[in-house]
Each structure stands twice: as C-alpha cells, then as structure tokens.
Specification:
Length: 369
C-alpha cells in the first residue's frame, strides 16, 4: 500500500466541494469527465434493460452480444479484424489497467510509462513491485514523443491521445516503439474518438505488434458515460482468460444493464458524439488562446482529449494550490502526472465556455497581484 499512488483530480474535487459548502464559488477544471448528458438513446436503452430484467449477474467476461459488437466496432475504427474472445468487459478503463497489470507485471519488471502520464499507470506498476522507466515528450513540439527516451523494458504503457498533454502518437512513434521488442504493450485509447482534425493511429494496425497489444478503451469519455462504469480490454485470448479470473475474484462482472446501454452506444447515431467533439474544439481554442495570453504561461495546442497542460514558468504545485484556495479555480498540479510535469498545471476543458472564460479571468486577476 505504501507504493500505491492516487489520482489527484479526485482530491482536488473533494477540496473544491468543501470550499463550495463554505459558500465559495469554484470553476471546476480539475476532473476529466465530459459535462454533457449521456445521449438519450443510451439512457433509454438502459431503462428498457432494467424493465427487461437486466438486474442480475451476467457472464464474467461480459455480455456475449456486446463483446461481439465491441470487437466489430473497435476493429472497424482501426481497420483490423478483432477476436470477440479477446474482449473482456469491465467496470471502466481503470479495471482494464489494473487487471492486466496484475496479470503481467512481476516483481522487478521494468515498464515504460509516460512522464507526464495518467498517474494510475505508475501507481499500479509500483504497487506490483515493477520498476517505472519514464519516457518523455517534447513540449516545444506539441508534446510529441521524445523517441530518444524510449528504453528496452519488459513492457510498456502508452496513451494516445494523451492525458494530460493532448499530444498523440504517430505511426512513426509506434514503429520506434515496435523496434524495442517489448513483451507486451498496454495501449490506452480512451480518447481515440476525441480528436481535432488529426487521425488516430492504433498499434493494433501494426501486424508485428498485434499479438502483444492490450487495447484499453471505455464508454466513459466518448459517450459521456463516466458514471456508468463500463470499459473493455481487447487482448490475446490466454490473457483474456486471466483477466476474467481476476474479474471473478474482484467485481464478478460489469453492471448488466450498463452493458445493454453500451450496445445502443455502439449501434446508435453518431450526432451527439460529433457535437461533443465540436464543442470541445471550440473550448480548446478559447482556453489555449487565453492561457497563452497570460505572461509566463506557454500552452501547446492539444490535438485530442480535453486537457490543456501549460508550462506555467513556476512551481505548478504551489500555483494549483493558490488557484483553488485564493481564486476558486480547481485544476491539477502537473507533478501529479510525473516529475516532468513539475512546472505545469492541467486544466480540463470539459466545462462550459462560460466557466472557462471566468477561470481565465480569475487566473489573470490572481497573477496580477
Ligand atoms: C488516460 C486515461 N485512462 C483511463 C482513464 C479511466 O477511465 P474510466 O473512468 O473509464 O475508468 C482515464 C480517466 O480520466 C484516463 O484519462
């Protein structure tokens, strides 16, 4: 337990709620949850599922109809054919990370982990006795992967589009990763459908890597379903069997009515998702422009996901604390994502344009003092 980390965004949210309970106003730019309603056809499908009796345990690895649909959908997006028997449905993307790392990481294993990166990667690898080997990004080049920092290791965790930077991994990056000869690659693609005019490249499209990839994806971000707790991993069958065994030991199965709603998400209209991405793009432009206008700040333009990760020209921990306590702007210190984030702060723009503009005004006012 001493080695297990956390996700600071949840702690910031708790403190922000305390301040609100004291009557303070807070602009919430800390948590990575789209602020849109879940599309209505998905909510309707869940209601119908409840009426039809999807209120009991289901198969441990997921509803067979959903697993088949996931394999077809995820394969279509990436231009490959995927095996439904490699799909395991779990309560969110986090259990995909947790279960697969539990199955794969042995004491002393070196694992490539992005720095900065989603904090749960390093947390779980270290809890399991693995050794984190950081790979870095070039902020001045839109947070492109710094290939010079790639190292040979047992396994690697990668995330594209990337939280917290909004950068993406290109075909060339994946070729460089493939050349490392890693035994396994966990590819976290939860933001793969939130992109601004660029193409998603998944390592599943590289035949040389196919049998070593674990794809991690979820319904959380694309369909604004963070509270439904539903995600999936797509992996080689022997690993899928082990992950299913872990799921039996831990959660038994993902919620059965959520899984029926997920079928409606995969099969239903795309208009709400497209509208969400258009809205995120407008907000991105507002926040990036606003942050770059603040003296001492430098913000690369995110290509995907919904986070801005400016270099703030000072200690990010102290600034994030002051922003919340003194200005009522909730954000996450860059160091929460790894040592390379020390002089950064992460702002989630999964908030209304009005909230973003008010937050920018408060930041300017605080720093003008
Ligand atoms: C990169 C990344 N992976 C996984 C997750 C977890 O997603 P879920 O809520 O589906 O567990 C998040 C959530 O913020 C994330 O940013």
């Amino acid at each position: 337990m001493g080695r297990l980390g956390t996700e600071t965004a949840f702690q910031v949210l708790a403190r922000a709620r305390e301040l609100e309970a004291q009557g303070r106003s807070v602009c919430h730019l800390e948590i990575g949850a789209p602020d849109f309603a879940t599309p209505p056809h998905i909510v309707e499908a869940a209601k119908e599922a409840l009426d039809q009796g999807y209120t009991k345990y289901g198969p441990a690895n997921g509803d067979p109809e959903l697993r088949k649909e996931i394999a077809a959908y995820a394969g279509r997006l990436r231009g490959v054919t995927l095996d439904p028997d490699g799909v395991v449905v779990v309560p969110g993307a986090k259990p995909v990370l947790f279960f697969t790392l539990m199955a794969l990481v042995e004491e002393g294993d070196e694992v490539l982990v992005p720095d900065p990166g989603f904090p749960i990667y390093a947390s779980v690898v270290e809890m399991l006795g693995g050794k984190v080997v950081p790979c870095r990004f070039d902020e001045r080049n839109g947070f492109a992967l710094d290939r010079a920092t790639l190292r040979r290791a047992k396994g690697g965790i990668f995330n594209t589009p990337h939280n917290p930077t909004g950068g993406i991994l290109t075909r060339g990056d994946w070729d460089a990763i493939a050349a490392l000869g890693l035994e396994w690659i966990l590819s976290d693609e939860v933001y793969s459908e939130i992109l601004y005019g660029v193409e998603h490249f998944s390592p599943l499209a590289l035949p040389s890597l196919r049998d070593r990839i674990i794809l991690c994806d979820a319904f959380s971000k694309t369909w604004s379903m963070t509270g439904w707790r539903l995600g999936y991993g797509i992996m080689p069958r022997p690993l899928a069997e082990q992950v299913t065994r872990l799921q039996i030991n831990c959660t038994s199965c993902a919620a059965t009515f959520s899984q029926r709603a997920a079928l409606a998400a995969l099969r239903g209209p795309r208009c709400e998702v497209e509208e969400m991405v258009r809205t995120f793009r407008r907000r991105r432009d507002v926040i990036v422009q606003g942050l770059n206008a603040i003296p001492g700040f430098r913000c690369a333009e995110p290509k995907g996901a919904f986070y801005a990760f400016p270099h703030v020209g000072r200690d990010g921990d102290a600034l994030a604390r002051r922003l919340l306590e003194e200005a009522g702007v909730a954000c996450v210190a860059g160091s929460s994502f790894g040592p390379a984030g020390k002089e950064h702060v992460r702002f989630s723009y999964a908030a209304s344009e009005e909230t973003i503009r008010e937050a920018l005004r408060r930041i300017r006012a605080l720093l003008a003092v």
